[in-house]
Amino acid sequence: MIMENSLLQSKRGYHIEPGTREKALLLEDPVLNQFKSHKRNVHGLKRMGDVLAVVVAAGCCYMIYVKSVMREEGQKEPRSINEGL
């Protein structure tokens, strides 16, 4: 019975309205607006970072492909030279 009552009680406690100090801290301060980045600039910067990450990944995949093709060609050339003799 005691276990059931403790499980039914909220672990967060009761809701209490914030006081005047808490409300004042939650208000926006106009002095700090000059230090906040604008959403458009942040969105553009994130998009540029995503594009740069895709370009770098594509470049890495291309280099891996080129190296594997060059390795295959390098392994085939000595055999064809030896077969011609």
TrEMBL record:
It comes from the Eukaryota. One of its GO terms (cellular component) is respiratory chain complex II (succinate dehydrogenase). This is Endoplasmic reticulum transmembrane protein.
